[in-house]
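Board notes (copied after class):
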Amino acid sequence: MNDHCEPSTLRVFVALAPPDDAKDELARALQPAYAGYPLLRWNRIEDWHITLAFLGEIPSTAVPLLRSVLAGRAASQPALQLGLRGGGHFDGRLLWSGIDGDLEGLHLLAADVRELVKSCGTDFVDRPLRPHLTLARARRGDAASVPQAAAGLTGFVGRRWQAGHLHLVGSNIGRGPGPIHYRDIEAWRLGAAAGAQPGRERSRGGGCAE
């Protein structure tokens, strides 16, 4: 007998992700920080991503509709040329690497994704987009590690790469202080539609049917 059942809700977000070689390049630059700040809760490299819209906990029944509209949006979106650059922190608690490259295109894509999510009647955390790649979080009582690790990334400039897929991601948050793990619910190749062109007009239509 199969006791497995799908959860009634999922914690999800929409994101882009660097390719493996770009992540490896940053991981090499982080080697001194890995050794020097062992108390930090480091994210797994395979989980590194750039969040475009954080939807939080949503009903599982909302996912198929989101899949449909996000697939259409991805098909009309040319791939973005991005890069990883430098580092910083939020409130001394969260360590990140910055995003470089086609930031205008990135902001337009995020705005379009958020409009589509709203059109499907799905609430989300509508805070201003600050493109970054989350690397680590501080443990309680460790106030110095994150700012010092961020300072160590000041001179880092990664190669440019192509963000080729739009990802709908689910997060698995367990109880206690353990790490957060992510899995792709689905990913769609950007620019899959023939003749996809850049520009704001590409987002017209494609919303959820009423």
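Comment from the instructor: The first strand starts at residue 9 and ends at 16. The chain has one domain: 9-193.
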